[in-house]
Amino acid sequence: MSAAAKMWASTHNATLAGKMAAVVEALHACQATAGTGYLSAFPAEFFDRFEAIRPVWAPYYTIHKIMQGLLDQYTVAGNGKALGMVVAMADYFAGRVRSVIQRYSIERHWTSLNEETGGMNDVLYQLYTITNDQRHLVLAHLFDKPCFLGLLAVQV
């Protein structure tokens, strides 16, 4: 979706615009059917495994790609529905992260991030610059990886 939005921005091809809108509509229908804000090609149970620090194939990497694609559909291609979808996804994952922190600890959440998170913090910081919603900023910070960023700060 990101590549399509950027291709459209350079060509303004009407056929591409129609196809992008159709993809966003189809994804919106899937998200609405789920009714939780969750949107992915794999079950939410993958995040149960991730949060339990059990092996699972890169779920946040994939979610980041979906969120970034939708955000690019909004920022680059002007599809307003895509922004609402990204916000719904952020709300869903904020609930998941909050649940892990409440059930276990912030350290447990950070331990799970050592496996992978794609660019979740980046897409959430971008979302915050659009919405100015503090919840998006807090969630972005929660995806900053202390095991990586902490070392950068110390090794300056």
The geometry reads as elongated
* Broad structural category: mainly alpha
Q: Main sheet, how many strands, which sense, barrel? A: none
Mean pLDDT: 92
Domain module tally:
1
Strand percentage lies at: under 5%
Straight-line N-to-C gap? 37 Å
Can you count the beta strands?
Answer: 0
The SSE order reads HHHHHHHHH
Count of separate DSSP helical elements:
9
Give the uncertain stretches in residue-range form.
Answer: none
What gyration radius follows from the Cα positions, in whole Å? 16 Å
Helix content: over 70%
Could you walk me through the main structural features you see in this protein, from its secondary elements to its overall organization?
With 156 residues, the protein is mainly α. The chain has one domain (2-154). The protein is built from nine helices and no strands. The protein has helices at 2-11, 14-34, 45-51, 59-75, 80-103, 106-113, 120-131, 134-142, 146-154. Helix 4 runs antiparallel to helix 5 (80-103) and helix 4 (59-75) packs parallel to helix 7 (120-131). It is elongated and about 50 Å long. The N and C termini lie far apart (37 Å). The mean pLDDT is 92. InterPro entries: Beta-AFase-like_GH127_cat. This is Non-reducing end beta-L-arabinofuranosidase-like GH127 catalytic domain-containing protein. Residues 1-152 form the Non-reducing end beta-L-arabinofuranosidase-like GH127 catalytic domain.
Question: What's the structural blueprint in terms of helices and strands?
Answer:
Layout: H1 2-11, H2 14-34, H3 45-51, H4 59-75, H5 80-103, H6 106-113, H7 120-131, H8 134-142, H9 146-154
Helix pairs in contact: 1-2, 1-4, 4-5, 4-7, 5-6, 5-8, 7-8
